């Protein structure tokens, strides 16, 4: 139910009069196919299924299907989650959104607003007046959200049909589109609350709105990759479709890794909608977990290539996408676990993405698009020393300092830009933080010349030019944001010592006297091991070391501009929001006097 901002009623009335005429025309003129088809499933493509199952259980009231880790039962239809490369969300494609009906829409949206984006993966869509819920007179209340993978979902308050409610199509000709679906799959022409004609399949509505911005996008390769209908005899229906010159993308077949012997076929519907037709008994495809490729080489004997001047060659574009999700410290509940399984690692990385999406669209998040070549790392934690994977104790002096420190100013109360962190201000993430993998911008490009190594990190486009020539001292009188870096070679390992920090890029409370030692070693043709040791006696009782691996990706990854300063709405909005809170509190105090 795509709501046009300028005229919400137009959306619901589109095609009402025209479709009423066409529905009669269809019944009188076109040969009928088998009409026992019913909507069976919605296919959502994403990067990992288990977290999607949990999300739809928690927020949409669906139930996990026993024996199937990549599907949920939403009452009248299933939602199947399949790993795949995705080019965008559902909005603007042939299937613009799916709909769920709830008992109390206001309460549901209030619940979502309290949860917020962080940690939940719920994105709320507001109407032009800033409201989350709109009441359509004579119909019901409506609202829109997005799931973490870009699926647009409409929530309605329709007491007559609770749970999974409708599939809403975009179409250049809604009446003709609904006519086509009725001819091919049946359905009963009906009017929803007397305001919008559509097709009713048991308790599921199939609706369509006019798409006026050219043609809708193809669904294949979008979040809602296709919709599925179930029939008793697929071969019979396929034969009838062939007679009507319905375009088959795939003839009826039992797919590889199918959980049952039921067949499936694919056809292309109007406006680029991909449609699966499955036989009764269809139980989906078994999820295929991506496992890191095994190398034919004995990596312990790997000898890295050399530059023309004889130094180990570290050059190329590397990414930390595989390491995203690895916690810094070993979780206490898996203290004895050596490595995770491939499925556990994939689920962990997906949780890391959902817990840090903030307000970003899915296209900002590298690992949600499915293009990442490297499988998620199975490494349990980054800290490798101390051996228990936990950070050492902090010193007594540091604990006293923390206890006496004034509380940190939250972003919503910031009085000036300096109250916000250096990353929000687009200055730096510091020499430790800039290397850490995140939800996006994990690229690392290394370029070498005789006596120098240049490293550019995609996040905040910071570049370090590191001398590897011998020198005395480390520029003690020149404190810098990223400190003073100097490198040397220990065999095939580049060792970089960082000192002389300006004290404004603290990592976990580190002081300006922190000594950071970084080690870069090629462990295989496409792997670069990165170790970092922090020695800061003012904070920790002993040095500690972390490690993770960058993966080479010269073929498709490119470091792009990080235009943070030019479009830094975050800082502007934080400060203006804080001033709005100040004014509201001042007005409240004045009214209470």
Write the layout of secondary structure elements.
Blueprint: H1 8-13, H2 16-29, E1 38-46, H3 49-60, E2 63-65, E3 68-73, E4 78-83, E5 95-101, H4 105-115, E6 123-125, E7 134-135, E8 141-146, E9 152-156, E10 163-171, H5 174-185, E11 188-192, E12 196-201, E13 204-210, E14 224-231, H6 234-243, E15 248-253, E16 264-268, E17 274-279, E18 316-319, H7 342-354, E19 383-385, H8 396-404, H9 430-433, E20 443-449, E21 452-457, E22 462-467, E23 484-490, E24 493-499, E25 515-524, E26 527-535, E27 544-552, H10 569-592
Parallel strand pairs: 1-4, 5-9, 10-13, 14-17
Antiparallel strand pairs: 1-14, 2-3, 3-4, 5-10, 6-8, 7-8, 8-9, 11-12, 12-13, 15-16, 16-17, 18-20, 18-27, 19-27, 20-21, 21-22, 23-24, 24-25, 25-26, 26-27
Can you tag this structure with a few keywords?
593 residues, 10 helices, alpha+beta, 2 domains, nine-stranded mixed beta sheet, single chain, 2,3-Dihydroxybiphenyl 1,2-Dioxygenase, domain 1
């Amino acid at each position: 139910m795509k709501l046009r901002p300028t005229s919400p009623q137009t959306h619901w009335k589109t095609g009402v009069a025209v479709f009423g005429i066409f529905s009669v025309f269809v019944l009188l003129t076109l040969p009928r196919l088998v009409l026992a088809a019913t909507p069976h499933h919605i296919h959502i493509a994403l990067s990992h299924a288990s977290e999607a199952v949990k999300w739809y259980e928690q927020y949409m009231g669906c139930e996990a299907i026993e024996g199937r880790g990549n599907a949920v039962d939403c009452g009248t239809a299933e939602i199947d989650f399949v790993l795949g490369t995705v080019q965008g969300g559902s909005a603007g494609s042939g299937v613009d959104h799916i709909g769920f009906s709830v008992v109390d829409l206001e309460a549901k949206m209030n619940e979502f607003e309290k949860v917020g984006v962080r940690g939940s993966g719920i994105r709320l869509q507001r109407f032009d007046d800033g409201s989350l819920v709109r009441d359509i007179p004579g119909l019901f209340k409506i609202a829109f959200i997005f799931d973490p993978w870009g699926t647009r979902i409409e929530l309605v308050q329709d007491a007559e049909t609770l749970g999974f409610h409708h599939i809403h199509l975009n179409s250049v000709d809604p009446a003709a589109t609904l006519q086509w679906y009725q001819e091919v799959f049946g359905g009963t022409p009906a009017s929803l609350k007397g305001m919008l004609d559509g097709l009713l399949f048991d308790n599921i509505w199939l609706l369509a709105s006019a798409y006026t911005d050219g043609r809708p996008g193809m669904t294949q390769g979008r979040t809602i990759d296709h919709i599925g209908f179930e029939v008793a005899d697929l071969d019979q229906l396929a034969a009838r479709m062939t007679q009507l010159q319905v375009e088959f993308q795939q003839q009826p077949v039992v797919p590889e890794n199918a959980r049952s012997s039921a067949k499936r076929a694919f056809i292309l519907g109007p406006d680029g909608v991909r449609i699966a037709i499955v036989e009764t008994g269809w139980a989906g495809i078994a999820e295929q977990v991506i496992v890191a490729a095994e190398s034919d080489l004995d990596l312990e004997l790997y000898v890295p290539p050399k530059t023309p001047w004889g130094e180990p060659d570290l050059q190329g574009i590397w990414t930390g996408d595989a390491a995203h999700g690895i916690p810094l410290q070993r979780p206490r509940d898996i203290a004895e676990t050596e490595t995770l399984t491939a499925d556990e690692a994939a689920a962990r990385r997906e949780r890391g993405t959902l817990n840090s999406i903030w307000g970003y669209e899915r296209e900002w998040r590298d690992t949600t698009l499915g293009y990442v070549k490297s499988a998620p790392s199975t490494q349990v934690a980054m800290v490798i020393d101390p051996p228990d994977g936990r950070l050492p104790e902090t010193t007594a002096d540091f604990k006293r300092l923390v206890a006496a420190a004034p509380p940190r100013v939250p972003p919503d109360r910031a009085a000036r830009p300096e109250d916000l962190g250096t990353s929000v201000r687009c200055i730096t993430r510091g020499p430790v933080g800039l290397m850490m993998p995140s939800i996006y911008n994990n690229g690392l490009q290394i370029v070498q010349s005789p006596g120098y190594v240049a490293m550019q990190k995609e996040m905040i486009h910071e570049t370090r030019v590191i001398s590897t020539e011998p020198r005395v001292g480390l520029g003690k009188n020149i404190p810098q944001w990223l400190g003073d870096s100097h490198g040397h070679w220990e065999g095939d390992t580049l060792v970089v010592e960082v000192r002389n920090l300006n004290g404004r890029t603290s990592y976990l409370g580190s002081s300006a006297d922190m000594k950071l030692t970084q080690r870069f070693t090629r462990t295989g043709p496409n792997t670069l091991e990165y170790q970092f040791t922090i020695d800061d006696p003012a904070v920790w009782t002993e040095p500690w070391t972390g490690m993770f691996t960058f993966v080479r990706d010269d073929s498709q990854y490119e470091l792009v501009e990080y235009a943070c300063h030019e479009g830094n709405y975050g800082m502007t909005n934080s400060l203006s929001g804080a001033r709005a809170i100040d004014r509201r509190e001042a007005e409240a105090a004045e009214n209470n006097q």
